[in-house]
Amino acid sequence: MAKKAKNSLHWSLKESTRRVIESLAPAIQITVGALLAYSLAHYGLNHETPLLAITVCITSLGFSRDARPKRILQTAIGMVVGVAISDLALSVLGSGVWQLGLVLIVVLLAARFISGSSAFALTAGIQAMLVQLLPVPAGGVFIRTSDGLIGGLLAILVTALIPRDPRGLARTDANKLFDFFIESLNSLRLALRDVNMDVADDALRKVRKSQPLIDNWRMSLDSAVAISRISPFLNKYRDELKGQVRLMRGMDLATRNLRVIVRRVDFLLKDGTPRPYLADLCDQLHSAVSLMREGLNDSEALDNAEQELLEIIRQLDPKRFGIADQIREASVLLLLRPLVVDLLCASGMSEDDARAELPEV
Predict the structure, then answer these.
(1) pTM to 2 decimals?
(2) Residues 1-10 pLDDT 10s
């Protein structure tokens, strides 16, 4: 029991450290943005306590994996709208309990109209309530709306000028997916060679939980592409990011096919018969996908992976292995065909050209 608790503590410490390291760049970006927003409002415009300039900037940037300028702008606009509604209500209706309730419900509904995020609606509502409850600053109620605008503008500015290394995050997410994919192919190889049901069952459990790996890569890559359009420091990487988008889309489809193949293999092995030829194909795929992973940083590796995949795809004919009349066995081989097509598309080949390489069955 003590050993189990120690392992649990070690895992928690490792995950916490990882989160701190991954959050370092966003934390610096948020801090710089908040300080700039405060300085502009306080020293530039003589606003005594520009609370909303800071809070709008911090909330708009956030620690979300989705760092797209569109998402940041949407958050900032929603919060400023909430502050403006609250300021307007104060100037027209005054303050009181019923005014508080009216402003809150209007802001919550307006936020839901702007964004589908429930957390965003609550954040906008909190900002509006701060306006209602805090003393009116010198200069009038709409000073706080201008502070909110400053916070939103600074959030967009630091996104462009102090990007939080979205390329690095996208590459990290890509490596996590490739780690999973390569590990799954290795598990399939062992299971098919040794009829190891424990390995097959474990691979099946893991493959069912693989979708977040794709979702994270897609989100971080979308953010990197979007930021590269407005950031002078990342604009030069746009072609590289477009290539990674193609790679991600192909790996997305290949991962979906991999799930089906793992389920089929898990069922097939119940007869206790080893399939060394399928194990060999998985070994070849393992080598090709490992090269594709290197292709994140080296385009030549993708070319080499494409050549290996072409050698694999030309083998995917049930007649080659004498199983054309064995439906259960041939089904696994046939399922490998769309997976290899997807991998070829990820490596840079067009779908039509990849399908043209398939042997007739």
Answers:
(1) 0.79
(2) 444 444 444 5
